[in-house]
Amino acid sequence: MKIQFKSEELIIFESSLYRTTTSLIIGEQYILLVDPNWLPIELDFIEETIQEVGKDKETYLLFTHSDYDHIIGYGQFKNYKTIASSNFVNNKNQASILQQIEKFDDEYYVSRSYDIEYPKIDMSFAGNNEKLQIGADSYCFYQAQGHNIDGLLTFNESKGILIVGDYLSNIEFPYIYDSLVRYKATLASLEQIINQYTIRILISGHGDFTTDKSEMLQRIQDSRKYIADLEGSILNQKEFDTTQLYTRYKFPIIMDAFHQGNIKLAKAELRVK
After folding, report:
1. How many domains does the chain have?
2. Helix, strand, coil shares of the chain as percentages rounded to 5?
3. Domain for residue 75, yes or no?
4. Residue 126 sits in which domain range?
5. How far is CA 141 from CA 104, 127, 157, 176, 267, in A?
6. Which of 1, 33, 60, 237 is least surrounded by Cβ atoms within 10 Å, i.e. has the fewest?
7. pTM to 2 decimal places
């Protein structure tokens, strides 16, 4: 498993699958693990790293949202104190999410050392700008809907670490499973957070982190442009320029499947046949 970034207070792991990230924040009295994934050998590597840097520390596990690839490693760390949004706790699609994990493991002959189950959450957050003190660090949480219904933005104010889940990726355009309107609202929240606070590092759920504020803001604009182009093509009944889209983003076969899903959702939300 690749380590994308490493310092005394933060490690970013990168899976071989979908370039999915797992973050590990290292405090003086605690460690906070975010979205551990994918494969057993990768989860073992993460656990071994935690044993090296987190000995005798309190252990916390945070989920940015409930997509199956982000909760798939829960069983290996289920004794940790868990954090997520209230919408994550109340998600009505828990059974289908677990079925996606089971299908993945079945398709690729993956055996795990733990049972597959939906995460049980100890601390949940339903509002915006909600605070939590862990050790010497102050955390602030914001709702992040649009990609899906139960996203949570996590900002470690003490260390300047902003974890955004499946938003602001440099390798993916917006994947919209929930709502165009709510996705745009989350982008507005991100813009406000980035402009209001000192963000030392932004970590997306897939792809590369960034420490550059101008790049953070550019990723917001890139997301807004994709959504605007999507809405414009549907409302004006014009062909979306997928050639340009797949010049920017690699892996056009799978990307096209997500784009077609966005079209279907957008047509329903915009009430266009």
Report:
1. 1
2. 40, 25, 40
3. yes
4. 2-213
5. 31, 8, 10, 21, 31
6. 237
7. 0.96
